[in-house]
Specification:
5 strands, ATP-binding, 5-stranded parallel beta sheet, about 40% helix
Length: about 200
């Protein structure tokens, strides 16, 4: 980093913003195969939290590729950069006092750990959508598995690109067995148990 770049400290800090909002800021990092339910569960959870007065923001893998990461492809290097950018943005949102929900395949453990290390202890909650590939492929909501199997999409996670399951996620969801309501309730129970929300 350039030695002429200096960090500025300000009077209003994360703790002040958190107190104002009445809940703790965290990142809920949803990871799993395409079709595992990341965006669906994150969206339903955000709706439930919003109704409870929790200040949230949802970052979705497809949506950020329309703007923040529109210059990136799906090579391993681009996937790493995609997660780095989202991690830095999530860190800023945590500093702003928000509950940040992120729905990204994020196939590599090293990148998920990198984001965890950007924020404080307990501020990164890894949510593993532990839904078997077979179920995700049966769902195929965007028709991507079909295209990947036909060779029309390269570097597709689970087909010709690796996915490293989380080593020790805080939360494990299986949307192949549990309903959407059960998954959301499991997440809310966790947030309450950890005194992140009331």
């Amino acid at each position: 980093m350039d030695k002429n770049i200096v960090w500025h400290n300000y009077a209003v800090e994360k703790t002040h913003r958190s107190e104002l909002k009445g809940h703790k800021p965290v990142i809920l990092w949803f990871t799993g195969f395409s079709g595992s339910g990341k965006s669906t569960v994150a969206n339903a959870l955000e709706s439930a939290l919003h109704q409870s007065g929790v200040h949230t923001y949802l970052l979705d893998g497809d949506n950020v590729r329309h703007g923040l990461c529109k210059d990136l492809g799906f090579s391993d290097a681009d996937r790493v950069e995609n997660i780095r950018r989202v991690g830095e943005l999530s860190k800023l949102m945590v500093d702003a006092g928000l509950v940040v929900l992120t729905a990204f395949i994020s196939p590599f453990q090293a990148e998920r750990d990198m984001v965890r290390n950007l924020v404080g202890e307990g501020e990164f909650i890894e949510v593993f959508l532990d839904t078997p590939l077979e179920i995700c492929e049966q769902r195929d909501p965007k028709g991507l598995y079909k295209k990947a199997r036909a060779g029309e999409i390269k570097n597709f996670t689970g087909i010709d690109s690796d996915y490293q399951p989380p080593v020790a996620p805080e939360i494990r969801l299986n949307t192949g067995e549990n309903s959407l309501e059960q998954s959301v309730q499991q997440l809310i129970d966790y947030l309450k148990d950890k005194n992140i929300i009331q």
